[in-house]
């Protein structure tokens, strides 16, 4: 299992519900009431905010269905659901109990309160009660789980100390089995003479030997995992790989000139658009004939590629019984792909189609459970097994390290972050340049005065373009700068900053509303799609602007997606958010010329090296970091941990 004991952080205030999990029906209000009837340790931990109502309800419901009345097992199931909410695939209940006890102890320390003030007496009393809980004895707890009817029935899976819900155990096993099967299959036939001749045409320019080696590996393999940080030429390598593969296809007489069928996909529409544009630009740079032999190269979201089904939101039209027809499938920003979606992708790709997973494993992991790209890299890299020499020719992982971008200062900060060198990160941030700026504020200091001028100026310009009906210019302006936050809520959260910017903008230009029937909408409102809407073909993470239509003055939403900008009536968009600020997680797969990262206090559970690195690498030209030195150091020192078994399964399968 991939896991580690994190630095204890304060328990947050109790919440009623989290996003629905795919292991039970959608969460409803009555679930909270049912969870409130729970007794014993789960109820105490729910009151303290350690467990949410979802965790308790799913555990008690599963126990009731399976005939389990041992409260130690019920508690373990609740911890497993909690782990899924936090991105882990499995949980070691005994280790988690120790972590929770440490967090509860830290929460009772006055100077550990992340909000900078004493918690409410009732909340503090709930935390104190939870800290006094007697956890099950370790060996007895593990024995109870091993003897549980839920394990016997298959609802739970126990592997060593790790407890899985059956669904996620099956998904993880499937992903490992599919990847290992692809690696064990006979390699594709390659005409080496054609390969050498086509390599001549793609050499030159910014195409390093390691990129060429990665491209050749992709030609000779069914599966390639192409990794590297920003500016290392991943897209350049993808484009040249496609040229090499097209040459192989053109040389096959049985194809009769049929072009190579390629799918370009990414988890979000924004990332898919960037992939399509970047590949097209690379092919154009190679010459007018570079794309000969290639079919259409349109970037699409993974959900659109796999084919969403209205009757089943966890399944797609393309699966083992109805494989994708593409001969090459390229998936960019693969670090954003969770375990469930990766399983669906692998079952849809034909065993005899090439699969290129492209991404940076040091970025934030997926919102959903799993750390698939990082696990695949750990599990299948050359040094993942005991005999590195024997794996060197079969590992699908190709890592790029040479940085071609001119943003040397941003690159230096990113390298220090990757190395975990807090002193160097602080030094690089303080060495202010045209690329990097550190604005040091204490954790309890409000940076509003620092941010207001640039945020309002951007919002005003966006509003002016939108009022003039200039949707294309407004969409381009939207990508000029980003304010990124770790949290959605709280003083340093996205919702707070969105409200502030709207208040400031209204103070300068007057009321923002456009009229009755569209509360919260106004010309120049920056938009963020918060969930997939397959009927409208808009997807989570896509961005846009509300623009007045010149011919009739009606407000329209212009959304940038994988197939270009689309005009929609605001009333048709069911889950849309204002985007003067956005979370770092939502920013994955996109970039902006200038990025401002608002670091949360040093005690925030979300403050990790991966979050800092992801935010930093969204910037194309300039990054401004606002926060305390303590917050910077806490981020560098804290690596995100997700409990999974995928890397171990892959390592075991390659030995």
UniProtKB/TrEMBL annotation:
In the RecBCD complex, RecB has a slow 3'-5' helicase, an exonuclease activity and loads RecA onto ssDNA, RecD has a fast 5'-3' helicase activity, while RecC stimulates the ATPase and processivity of the RecB helicase and contributes to recognition of the Chi site. Belongs to the RecD family. It catalyses: ATP + H2O = ADP + phosphate + H(+). The keyword Glycoprotein does not apply. InterPro entries: Coronavir_polyprotein_1ab (IPR050534), P-loop_NTPase (IPR027417), RecD (IPR006344), RecD_N (IPR049550), RecD_N_sf (IPR041851), UvrD-like_helicase_C (IPR027785). The gene is recD. Residues 580-626 form the UvrD-like helicase C-terminal domain. A helicase/nuclease that prepares dsDNA breaks (DSB) for recombinational DNA repair. Binds to DSBs and unwinds DNA via a highly rapid and processive ATP-dependent bidirectional helicase activity. Unwinds dsDNA until it encounters a Chi (crossover hotspot instigator) sequence from the 3' direction. Cuts ssDNA a few nucleotides 3' to the Chi site. The properties and activities of the enzyme are changed at Chi. The Chi-altered holoenzyme produces a long 3'-ssDNA overhang and facilitates RecA-binding to the ssDNA for homologous DNA recombination and repair. NCBIfam families: recD (TIGR01447). It holds the Pfam family AAA_19. SUPFAM superfamilies: P-loop containing nucleoside triphosphate hydrolases. ATP binds at residues 228-235. GO terms for molecular function: 5'-3' DNA helicase activity; ATP binding; DNA binding; exodeoxyribonuclease V activity; single-stranded DNA helicase activity. Heterotrimer of RecB, RecC and RecD. All subunits contribute to DNA-binding. CDD domains: DEXSc_RecD-like, SF1_C_RecD. One of its GO terms (cellular component) is exodeoxyribonuclease V complex. Its EC number is 5.6.2.3. This is RecBCD enzyme subunit RecD. One of its GO terms (biological process) is double-strand break repair via homologous recombination. It is an enzyme of class 5 (isomerase). The lineage of its organism: Bacteria, Bacillati, Actinomycetota, Actinomycetes, Propionibacteriales. It comes from Nocardioides bruguierae. Keywords: ATP-binding, DNA damage, DNA repair, DNA-binding, Exonuclease, Helicase, Hydrolase, Isomerase, Nuclease, Nucleotide-binding. Residues 48-164 form the RecBCD enzyme subunit RecD N-terminal domain.
